[in-house]
Amino acid sequence: MGQEPSDFFYGHGTVGLGVADALINGGRGFLVSFVIDGGRVVEVNSTGFSHRSMVSRLAVAREQSGNRARIILGFERYLYRRFSPQFFPRKALAPMPHPKVPPSERINASYKQLATISPELHSAAKELSKTIDELNTALEPLYLRVPAWHTSSHGEDQNGNYWNRAIGYAWVEHQWTIALKTASGNEHADLHDEEVWAFSKAPRWLIIESVAKLPDLFETIIERVKETTAKLKARTEQTKELVAAIRAAAAEIEATKGAAALEGPEVGL
User: Would you list the domain boundaries of the chain?
Assistant: First the structure.
């Protein structure tokens, strides 16, 4: 009940204790009665109140009988630790209402705060852009000239509407660079919208999402380079066959011209 323990009687006697049926907040309490030394007969009668109750016997050595208050206090602490979380759960306090601030003052304060924190935002974005520029500088001497895209996230619903986001290496703004792309559309309606940015010029939320996919992009570039190399070799063989066929045709033409020259012109009557 949250009350201090009371020594209702000492020696022989009877005591009565009235307990309210409900606490102030409408909850239930827990009433504990215990007897030190256990040398008496204790009878507990209740009239059916809704609180929980418990009677416990606490044996104390005779030489400790002078420490009754200390023993009771220690037992009370034990009961609180043992039963309080179960029977008296703490309720969260309602938050204190904030005083209402006029909208003009709120937006004034918000704009000032944005002006204060925006330089740090630009500095962080610029620092990240420098690292991407270093990657582009490292790729440039390789002269890959092979576009590659790795899908970072995608989705589609039951109606055929789809969307996807990708990080890639592509020709953007007249240069080969690491880039970001968003696309959306509908498979059934033949609709497709696509937007591509150089990495550092993409929306910042997209940049943040895509940085972790850089290793995947480089692995995708490797795959595309290998595929492109194989295709180039295959096309080279096809081209060689075409060149051989043209050379053969040219040789036949030259041979025909040579034979005609040896026969000489026809002499008319």
Answer: 1-91, 103-221
